[in-house]
Amino acid sequence: MQTEVFSDIFPLLNTANPQTLEWLINVAVEHEYPAGRAVLMEDTWGNAVYFLVSGWVKVRRTSGEDSVAIAILGRGDFFGEMAVLDESPRSTDVISLSPVKLLTISRERFIQILFKDPQLHHRMLQLMVRRVRQINIRLQMRSCPPAIKLAHTLVSLAENYGKNSPQGKEILYIPFKDLAEVTEITLDETTKIIEKLNEKQWIKIDTAKNSIYIVNFPQMVNLANKF
């Protein structure tokens, strides 16, 4: 993989210097997983940071025999950094929702890179702060109507990971149970809202391609911002 491509895929790396990118490419290890595979397991020690080259994963937290999806990540994102930075066991599982390709960088080498490249270090802090802000927004939205909350989830996924297509922004056809858990609404509410959005032609579901297209993106953004 060329350094320019590496930088384009991952927002974390778009301020890194060329030497850092070259070194990262040389030390990264590639992995591929089919859909439904556990990529990371809770309570294992953080020994690497994971970069998502392609595909979708869900981050889930388990309690006893129950598990709840708390985030959905797509191409260009990364995970595993918290356990690496605070040297503690991982607090979540990561499960592939589609076939995925990942690059991993060992804890020791990732820490070394952060110390060597101040721009990368600063960018890492920026993205971690952005994640905290996103959590704060979700907390503010807890009392919002389910339709607004689900629209916000779909818009966020489209803005962060969606692909442009003639039919609109394309995202993975994410299982409704996972969408419901991430949005913090019920499965029944999720199903009814998705059906309504599909009827209004704001979205289009293509099960053959395993995709959801957000056809009327401006209207979805307008709905998502009503909190």
TrEMBL record:
Gene3D superfamilies: Jelly Rolls (2.60.120.10), Winged helix-like DNA-binding domain superfamily/Winged helix DNA-binding domain (1.10.10.10). SMART domains: cNMP. Pfam families: cNMP_binding. Residues 12-131 form the Cyclic nucleotide-binding domain. PANTHER family: CRP FAMILY TRANSCRIPTIONAL REGULATORY PROTEIN, HTH-TYPE TRANSCRIPTIONAL REGULATOR ARCR. This is Crp/Fnr family transcriptional regulator.
